[in-house]
Structures are given as structure tokens and as C-alpha cells.
Amino acid sequence: MTKALAKTLNGQAVLLLVVQALFGVANVLSGTFVPVYLWKASQSYMLIGWYTLGQYVMSGLTFWIAGKWVKEYNKMNSLRIGIVLTGVFYCTILLLGQQAKSYYVPLGILHGMALGFFWLAFNVVYFEVTDPDNRDRYNGWAGLLGSAAGIVAPWVSGLLITSMQGETGYRLIFTMSLVIFFISVILSFWLKKRHGQGIYNWKHGLQQLMQKGNPWRRMFPAIAAQGVREGVFMFLVGLTVYVATKNESKLGTFSLITSLVALISFWFVGKMLKKRNRNLVMMIGVIMISVVILPLFWKVTYATLIMFGIGTSLFMPLYIIPMTSRVFDLIGQTEESAREREEFIVLREIALMTGRVIGLTSYLIVLPRNHSTVAITWLLFAVGVVPIAGWWFIKPFLEQQQKA
Predict the structure, then answer these.
(1) Given 1.25.40.10, 3.30.450.40, 1.20.1250.20, 2.40.30.10, which CATH number is that of 10-189+202-403?
(2) pLDDT tens track for 123-141
(3) Which among 78, 120, 154, 395 could bridge 252 via Cys, Cβ 3.0 to 4.6 Å?
(4) What is the rounded end-to-end Cα distance, in angstroms, of the chain?
């Protein structure tokens, strides 16, 4: 594995992959069960929605505000602060215990701020250590390692939670996450210091969207379409599995099975995907991640959820790898746009946040009033087909790259 990485990625890219993987392990270990933990304490779909809304909005605001710091100063400090604040988030839940349900909005804001600091710096460094020729390969490895984390971590968490009485299991996994966050912070010091250059333009995103003929006028809604799906799927799928089974261990097993499939799929797609076939691959991906939702209309059981999860894991790389790679290729298309990479990455996050808030708004309208399995399935399907529109918006860029 190390040799395969070294052949296609430089040392800094490999180290960034390791830091990303550890951050992912720590988050998956505990993050999979945070919505379940809050739901068990409150039995409220509305509470979960407002917690998540606070997280999404604060993440987007952090990107925009911290963009000046990342562009003009040392961006590695932003990455480390993101890791530390994520640790503080889990430590706070650990200390609050059942009282966490009373602080759901502040907790969501804290988590959103932590994710904003980390992913802003990460995306900028990712852009700098990769190029159009190895970006698909990096994204494939990132997906593979993320899937590997999803195989082991939630399964272990589910076993620990169900085998220990009361909140002991939750306290243990939150503590384990804190230790892993600490290790990832230490490793980040081996990443090169990357001091900022230039002056941050606060109005950059708006200027791009107001300019006639600017490619970001199509790219923005394409990214937002991805966010609409993520805004609901990132927490509702796991919560639905728990509500259907009332068993954290089964949620862990669900994550194990689906992550194993995703690992194989990310590896294969990352290895085989070329610029010339991105358009066809992405079209197949967006159609199939919509089709795999259909078994839930028959009946929402653990078996049909597993079928849905396997299908999603199998086809998601066909959508997400070309989507991510093409966006960053556009950012690096010219020397001028590469110099404005921080602003473009902020614009990308604002697009994702916009989509996530739209998706979550539909959740806040539907689920608190009707949380039947039928309502949940229709909601998942409604937001799950939106990436098809995203593919339509990004299609000209993929075709342009294919001809080139």
C-alpha cells in the first residue's frame, strides 16, 4: 500500500492522507452515534434538525471568516485548531451527558466551527499537494481510507455501547476519539508550514456569481445539489437504522458492511477513472444512487436498509470522485484562479452549505410533523435525486475536459 501511494502521490500528500484518515476515524468512531445519543435523550426529530442546522450554518460562516486567516497567515494552524475544537466538542458531550439535549444548538455551532476550521485548511492544502493528473487517485485513496475507518470504528463503537450498561459505552468511545484527535494533531506538525500569500477578498464569491459567463454560475448549483443530499443523508440514514432496530450494534454492523463495499468501490473507481470518462461515470453514479433508494418504498426494515446502504456505497464513488476532482481542476485552471484558491474553496463550501440547508429545511418541515417510515422514505428519495440536476449543471465542464 505504501509503495502504491508513493508511486502516485508525494510525501506531503501521503501525510495529509494519514491526517485526514485519523480525523475521519475519530469522527466516525463517535460521530455516527451523536444523533442517536441526542435522539435517545430527547426522542425529538426537531431537536436533531436544529442541532444539525447550527452545525451546517456555522461551518459555512467559519469558512468565510477564517478564509482571511488561511490566505494571509499560516493555514496549518487552522487545520490544528479544527482538530482541537472537534476534540473539545466530544469532550463537552462527555461532560454534559444526558444534559447535552438542552444545549443542542450550541453543540451544533461548536461542531460546525471545528469542522469549518479543519476542512477549510485541509481543502487548501489538498489543492496545493495534488494536481489534475493525480487528483482522482488521491480522492480514490481518501475514499478508500475513509471507508476502512467506517468498517472498523462504528462496528467497535456499536459493540461497546450495547455491551456496557448506561452511558459507559458512549463515554468510552468519546474518550477514544479524543486520543485519536491528539495523535492527528501531533502528526500534522510534519506537514510543511504553508504561509499565506496575497490579500483575502471578502466579496470574491459574490463577484464570481454576478459575472456573466463565469463558469461558477453553473458550478455553484452543481455543488449545492450535492449539499442538498448530504444535508439529510449524513445523519438521517444512521438515525433511521437505529430507530428501525433500537440497537447500536446493528448500526455499527450496517456501517461495517456498507463501508467495506465503499472501500472496494473507491479503490476500483480511483484506479480506473480517467478524465475522458468522467461524464459517463458521473451520470451512471447519480442515477444509481437514486435508484437504490427504491427498495425502501417496499418496506423499511434492517434488510432493505442494508440493500440501500450497499447500493449507495457501491455507486457513490462514481459520483463523488469526478465531482470533487472537477471542482478543484476548475480552481486550478489558470494561474489567477490558483492564486485565489482560498476564496474559491470558501465559495465551494458556501455552495455546499446552501444545499445542505435547503435539504435540512425539507427535513424540518416534514419529519417533526410526520416521521412515519413512508415519510422518511419519500424525503430520502426527494433529496436523493437532486444530484442528477447537479450532474446536468457540471456536464459541460466534464465534456470540455473529455474533448481536451
Answers:
(1) 1.20.1250.20
(2) 888 888 777 777 777 877 8
(3) 154
(4) 32
